[in-house]
Amino acid sequence: MKETLLDKSDDFLIDEAQRKPEAFGVLVTRYQDRIHNYLYRMTGSREDAEDVAQETFVKAYLALSTFRRGWPLAPWLFRIATNLCINLLKKRNRVTALPEEMEIMDRGESVEAEVEVRELKRELDEVILTLPEVYRVPILLRHLYQLSYEEMAQAMDVPLGTVKTRLFRARELLRAKLDHTRMMERHGLQGDKSPI
Amino acid sequence: MDCKEIRALFDPYLDGRISRKEREEVENHLSWCYACREEYLTLERVALLLEGQERVPAPPWFAHRVMEEVYRQRSAHSRARVVLYGAWALASLLGLALIVEGGLAVYQAVIQSSDSLVEGSEGVSNSAADLSAANPELMDTLFILLANLESDLVLGLSLVFVSSCLALVALMNYRPPRTAYR
Asked: What is the C-alpha to C-alpha distance for residues B7 and B40, in angstroms, rounded to an integer?
């Protein structure tokens, strides 16, 4: 029964998935938002995010026997999602992409503050999408999902040192681009959206 | 520590991956150095903005679509397994039959040759006669085997080998999802 599966642990569900695929369904609902959101931030497109997310979970199901029980599932899923996503982006040869319009939740602040925050967030979305994929990944994993460096190493399939190097460099790039955009606006020039 | 060294610690500090001693150094420095404080606050602001970004959840039909595909792959895989194992079983049976038939033929040929050797020296070449003088039965058996190299025996063996490879391919690529206990 699906009801009794809902509060089972990930490891239990992974075991059950062999005999009862619906156990895997519960795992999907547990992680789908995280993976979908991550892919949306990576690609800037809902359609792409949904397609790659679906591919991620199907691939995970077929590779379940290779997953080490007792380890956290999220970094492993992020790894599959990242690889699939980067393949897609390489195929499209896409470096920049504009995100769709999003609703900002009401946080009870003044109108001016809300507008400023909204603008900043939109700017941030766009700037993130101009980062090369190799730097976009650690920024999202660290700041959207608070993955530890170790979990990031797992998700990115690189050594710990590489995680730090890429993350710190990504932040540097992000800051530089945000400053650059702000400077252009201050001087009344068009925002330059091309990657540096 | 000077500003440069402090700024090198900003990232680990932000991520909470810093020793207590270094954390104290950073916080102490930031308490009086305006330039570094501004620099750090920019970094922190970016991080906070990112963390506060709206989450875009998966659509409500998402899990359903995934499971549809999962079931589809499962059937496809079990069909492929059936086909490959069926081919393997068929080829193996054929191969075994050929091996038995070929083996019997070789055995009969050996028996006949030894009989003919006892009676006289029929159908044995000169060079063979020289060698067989040293070890008659063994050499004759070997020659008979060589002569029958193109027989069904070898064909049967090849078939079994090829079909075993097929079975291996089936096992490796189409095995049902099973959890490994490590």
From this structure: 8
- What type of residue is A78? F
- Is some CB atom of chain A closer than 8 A to the CB atom of B11? yes
Residue B149 distance to chain A (closest CA, Å)? 45
Q: In which region does residue B155 sit, left (phi positive, over 0), alpha (psi from -120 to 50) or beta (all else)?
A: alpha
Q: How far is the C-alpha of A124 from the C-alpha of A155, rounded, in Å?
A: 23
Query: Does ipTM come in above 0.95?
Result: no
Q: Helix (H, G, I), strand (E, B), or coil: what is residue A100?
A: coil
- Among A54, A69, A102, select the one facing B66 at the smallest CB separation: A54
B28-61 burial, b at 16+ Cβ within 10 Å, e below that, comes to: ebbeeeeebeebbebbeebbebbeebeebebeee
The tokens for A117 are 């925050």
Would you state the structure tokens that stand for residue A106, as one six-digit string?
């009401």
**Closest listed residue to residue A179, CA positions, set B38, B62, B116:** B38
**Kindly report the CA angle at A110 between A105 and A112, in degrees rounded to 5?**
95
pTM of the model: 0.68
For the stretch A130-158, pLDDT in tens is: 999 999 999 999 998 889 999 999 999 99
The owner of tokens 């606006």 is: A185
